[in-house]
Amino acid sequence: HFRVEHPAGGYKKLFETVEELSSPVTAHVTGWIPTWLRGSLLRCGPGLFEVGAEPFYHLFDGQALLHKFDFKEGHVTYHRRFMRTDAYVRAMTEKRIVITEFGTYAYPDPCKNIFSRFFSYFKGVEVTDNTLVNVYPVGEDYYACTETNFITKINPDTLETIKQVDLCKYVSINGATAHPHIESDGTVYNIGNCFGKNFAIAYNIIRIPPLQADKEDPMNKSEVVVQFPCSDRFKPSYVHSFGLTSNYIVFVETPVKINLLKFLSSWSLWGANYMDCFESNETMGVWLHVAEKKKGRLLNIKYRTSAFNLFHHINTYEDNGFLIVDLCTWKGFEFVYNYLYLANLRANWDEVKQQAEKAPQPEARRYVLPLNIDKSDTGKNLVTLPYTTATATLRSDETIWLEPEVIFSGPRHAFEFPQINYRKYGGKPYMYTYGLGLNHFIPDRLCKLNVKTKETWVWQEPDSYPSEPIFVSHPDALEEDDGVVLSIVVSPGAGPKPAYLLILNAKDMSEVARAEVEMNIPVTFHGFFKRA
User: What membrane topology does the annotation report for this chain (predicted)?
Assistant: First the structure.
């Protein structure tokens, strides 16, 4: 699977502007949709990659498009709508890019006179509300999100935008990740940067309680449960996700840093965007932090390991005084997002491969964190679990040096966008994870991985570009992998239909059915299955 090539460049279709739909369209089903599969697959991604003649430059800049595949009695429909964010509505109104996005600077309004333009240089940055990354439930509501303080409340049936919500109004946080943890009772946890005591930077874990009998919006009851310290007072690390078990919260602090002086300075003076504010700390490596969830108490244990980028936690669980932390890492301190400019991703295949040559190498890893430390074990490996090769060595300065067990590794082939049977096995011991295989950053296969034996199952077809696989459990499931895996596949070269929803048997990743549509579907990042 490490030799698949894409000379035809069909992956470029993932980064092409499309139109929204006024009403859902019927998808053409081949195979047989399980009758128990009832509900909606909701997913987010960019759908507008330029405004008039002005292009967006980065993968995370295109305007947010919300997608839905509906399953009912073996029939499938597809719908999509652009979210009516400030960024989108103002771009449509003024026919130009108005709000600066992750990798695209929005120039000041050319119609303003020189006097008002001068003053706009000293206005703070207008933070983007382009919520293109994920969609998740809070109580009875549904929100699309990116990584800023703005989330977008949406109607999961019609895909209409209800309103913009500013998290800063509810809780002390400057932004929140697109990867909240949602517990079985509906409690939502998330993490974000904030200004802590005496101006020092910190990371806050916030909790949004489940919907109560009073039916009040749970957002009004959100609170900070614990604060993690920052390795550098003025430079918070980029945080994309975190780990959660029934008793612990795990935060991995990586060497990809946000330079606050740049971030808070007037971007318009030098045409800056979010990407311009990142830098790497070449010496710190990675710091891991653990807190007790219920007490909100920080464990005073300093875990250290060598440098990597981290976007996605696979799963985390407790075993006999240890925390098992499974991660999709990228080895090194250079920011992986440097390789996700649209110009890179739209290049011809030979160039795509050449670009990726010098990027950090991907690797799925298991780290094991001992929770009970005995000083008499200094110099020794504290990991006594029988099933892992991961180590944790207590050093004389009382830090604990971690070495991982590798659970998946292939040259420039990432196991990424990991999903699990989250409802039943999130935060608990588990066996299987489902991922999107990136080949030099191009998604070209779906992969199931047994994290214990490292056995893999792969779905792959020529010139076919899938999305993050979403696991949906069978209603009467007895085993962890009883169910199906859903993914949106773009297939520009293969046959008449440009895209389809793929349904695989989660046991062996064999095809159960596909539902084809007569239109292209651009890249989507994350989403979830909402049961009917």
Answer: Lipid-anchor
Distance of CA 142 to the CA centre of its chain: 17
Per-residue pLDDT at 116: 66
| pLDDT given for residue 393 in this prediction | 98
Q: Give the end-to-end CA distance of the chain in Å, rounded to a whole number.
A: 36
- What type of residue sits at position 500? Y
Q: Do 85 and 64 contact (CB within 8 A), yes or no?
A: yes
pLDDT recorded at residue 514:
97
Q: DSSP letter for 22, please.
A: S
pTM above 0.90, yes or no: yes
Best CA proximity match to 96, nearest among 58, 63, 144, 60: 63
**Integer-rounded Cα radius of gyration of the chain:** 23
How many C-beta neighbours within 10 Å does residue 357 have?
8
The one-letter amino acid code at 380 reads: K
The DSSP bridge pattern shows strands 302-305 and 399-403 to be parallel
Whether residue 413 is annotated as binding a ligand: the answer is: no
| pLDDT < 50 positions in the chain | none
Is 526 among the annotated ligand-binding positions?
yes
Q: What is the pLDDT of residue 119?
A: 64
Backbone torsions φ then ψ of 401, nearest 5 degrees: -90, 125
**Residue 312 annotated as binding?**
yes
179 marked among binding-site residues: yes
The reported pLDDT for the residue numbered 111 is: 74
Question: Strand order of the sheet with strand 150-154?
Answer: 134-138, 141-145, 150-154, 161-166
Q: Check if the beta carbon of residue 315 is closer than 8 Å to that of residue 366.
A: no
